[in-house]
From TrEMBL:
Keywords: ATP-binding, Helicase, Hydrolase, Mitochondrion, Mitochondrion nucleoid, Nucleotide-binding, Nucleus, Transit peptide. It comes from the Eukaryota. Its cofactor is Mn(2+); Mg(2+). One of its GO terms (molecular function) is hydrolase activity. Residues 226-383 form the Helicase C-terminal domain. Its EC number is 3.6.4.13. It is found in: Mitochondrion matrix, Mitochondrion nucleoid; Nucleus. The keyword Acyltransferase does not apply. GO terms for biological process: mitochondrial RNA 3'-end processing. GO terms for cellular component: mitochondrial degradosome; mitochondrial nucleoid; nucleus. It catalyses: ATP + H2O = ADP + phosphate + H(+). This is RNA helicase.
Length: 573
């Protein structure tokens, strides 16, 4: 919001296209711009011609974080395969610290760490894009990596799954956390393939870097025999495939044999539902003794898996169908045989014998060394660049900036295709640049028609009135248990729209005031999806004498409607 204020202040400072260094420095201090940018802008800048200071020079991103640069951090790299105890050791240091942060790639991991610390009598807040759970007296916070605080100071911080700094879409968030968190100790966990890159990146920070390597705690045995038939599926198996449609096909085939019922886990399921499905699979008392899942099981869920079975070794990555990479195969296969579980020895195989050579060679190979880390310009830079080019349209600003961006060989610009799609939409609306930037950062899948339409309607309402009421596009109390796969997919999309509303409400609270309603309806979506999954497997997780989830759903729905919309007349049971 600081830079949105900057535009107004800038216009009041001078109507001239030439703003001198004293004016700029005063402006940036008033709006709280980063001290790095403040120091760099020490000469006159013409916003209508080339600047002496090159805003597109991104070759020294470590200087974007002056707080962290003031401290000589002790950085500990905990490196090893899945199920090696690397994160466990880092979290023990976090637990023992007087203040700290945990930065994870998934909400599920942030939830788990917050729960763990609070259970250990270490008060811990939870902050994700869609949640704020603040604990009285807490000096620790568990959060998703995009929410990492680079302005505060901590005794200890943990960054989990650091190899994701090479992710083409989210890598920039891991780079930001690695360079920007100001802590005495920084514990970084992940794949050993990331070590050389991290060491190069931190050479210029004056940090002290130590590397600790870990070995897997329990054996992982690659089998020489494929599964071949679903008749050979047994309790504790996890069959992995890479499309939602295939997950339900495999579930149906396995359950048709009459021996097993299947839990399912995949990316577009709400996180709460994924957790519930994992819990049912892990529970000895549950009939759901087989898991059918996508690569969403690769991180974030504790699963008691005996054997991983790859139904295919290919996946569609959004652009083309390709073979799984070595890191992908290792990450998924490593979920079998969790240390301390009822299956201490893990096994891994494939459905088809023709896929076994790729599986075996990948498990024996070292992961390719990461060459570059993701990077993305700060809003400070983009907003000044827009002023220099006299435009408030975000799409051309971002496109031109990235085309001219200069990088060192250790970095790449994160893929912003989704941001550019959103920018095309919001540039049609009378919005401030910062508001456009927020909408472009929002967690929306523009390839999902319902999600995209939700964002468009939110942005249009916000631009017209500055206020977005949920009832304008969604009527609470109208959700139903899906009866078909298409209806299930639609409900998952509705959950995404409600999730988007909650995300926006944390950034524009006065303009999106119905957060509690949206959150309650998100919970309803999860309940209805769980009901569908129960029905599709012919399974009820409730014991005798307990109400069915259908009854609970109706009860919950009526209670929530009365709570938020007292004017609606709802019959009592």
């Amino acid at each position: 919001m600081a830079m949105a204020r900057a535009f107004r202040l800038r216009n009041s400072l001078s109507s001239s296209p030439l703003l001198h260094d004293t004016a700029i420095k005063s402006l940036l201090l008033n709006v709280g711009c980063s001290s790095w940018l403040y120091c760099q802008l020490s000469s006159p800048i013409s916003f209508h011609s080339s600047a002496k200071f090159d805003l597109t020079d991104l070759t020294q991103p470590h200087l974007w974080y002056p707080n962290a640069r003031k401290k000589k951090r002790n950085v500990f790299l905990h490196m090893g395969p899945t199920n090696s105890g690397k994160t466990y050791h880092a979290l023990k240091r976090l637990e023992a610290s007087s203040s700290g942060l945990y930065c994870g790639p998934l909400r599920l991991l942030a939830w788990e760490v917050a729960r763990r610390l609070n259970n250990a009598k270490v008060p811990c807040n939870l902050i994700t894009g869609q949640e704020r759970d603040e604990i009285d007296g807490a000096k620790h916070t568990s959060l998703t990596v995009e929410m990492a605080d680079v302005s505060g100071e901590y005794q200890c911080a943990v960054i989990d799954e650091i190899q994701m700094l090479g992710c083409k879409t989210r890598g920039y968030a891991f780079t930001r956390a690695l360079l920007g968190i100001c802590s005495d100790e920084l514990h970084v966990c992940g794949d050993p393939a990331s070590v050389p890159l991290i060491q190069r990146i931190l050479e210029v920070t004056d940090d002290v870097v130590q590397v600790q390597y870990y070995e897997r705690l329990s054996p992982l045995v690659p089998l020489n025999v494929p599964l071949e038939s679903f008749a050979n599926v047994k309790k504790g198996d996890c069959i992995v495939t890479f499309s939602r449609q295939d997950i339900y096909k495999l579930k149906k085939k396995i359950e048709a044999g009459g021996k097993h019922l299947c839990s399912v886990v995949y990316g577009s399921l709400p996180p709460e539902t994924r957790t519930k499905q994992a819990t049912l699979f892990n529970d000895e008392r549950s009939e759901m003794d087989v898991l059918v899942a996508s690569d969403a099981i690769g991180m974030g869920l504790n699963l008691n898996i005996s054997r991983i079975i790859f139904s295919t070794m290919k996946k569609f990555d959004g652009e083309s169908t390709r073979n799984l990479t070595v890191p992908e195969i290792k990450q998924i296969a490593g979920r079998a045989g969790r240390y301390g579980s009822k299956f201490p020895v893990g096994e891994v195989t494939c459905l088809k014998g023709s896929d076994l050579p790729l599986l075996h060679s990948s498990l024996n190979a070292a992961s390719p060394v990461l060459e570059r880390a993701g990077l993305f310009p700060t809003f400070d830079l983009l907003s000044l660049y827009s002023r220099m080019h006299s435009t408030k349209d975000f799409h051309p600003v971002l496109e031109k900036f990235l085309a001219k961006a200069k990088l060192s060989s250790d970095y790449f610009i994160s893929d912003c295709e989704e941001m550019l799609k959103i920018a095309v939409v919001v540039d049609e609306l009378p919005l401030a640049l910062y508001d456009k930037y927020l909408f472009c950062l929002s967690p929306v899948d523009m390839n999902d028609d319902i999600s995209a339409q939700g964002l468009i309607q939110f942005a249009e309402s916000f631009s017209r009135k500055g206020l977005v009421r949920l009832q304008e596009i969604f009527t609470p109390g109208t959700l139903q248990v899906p009866k078909t796969q298409n209806q299930l997919k639609e409900l998952e999309s509705i959950h995404k729209v409600l999730d988007l509303y909650v995300w926006l409400s944390f950034r524009m609270e006065e303009s999106f005031p119905d957060r509690e309603v949206a959150a309650s309806q998100k919970s309803m979506c999860s309940l209805l999806i769980e009901e569908f999954l129960e029905r599709s497997g012919g399974y009820r997780p409730f014991r005798k004498g307990q109400p069915t989830s259908q009854w609970l759903q109706k009860k919950y729905q009526k209670r929530e409607m009365q709570k938020y919309f007292p004017e609606i007349n709802v019959e009592s049971d």
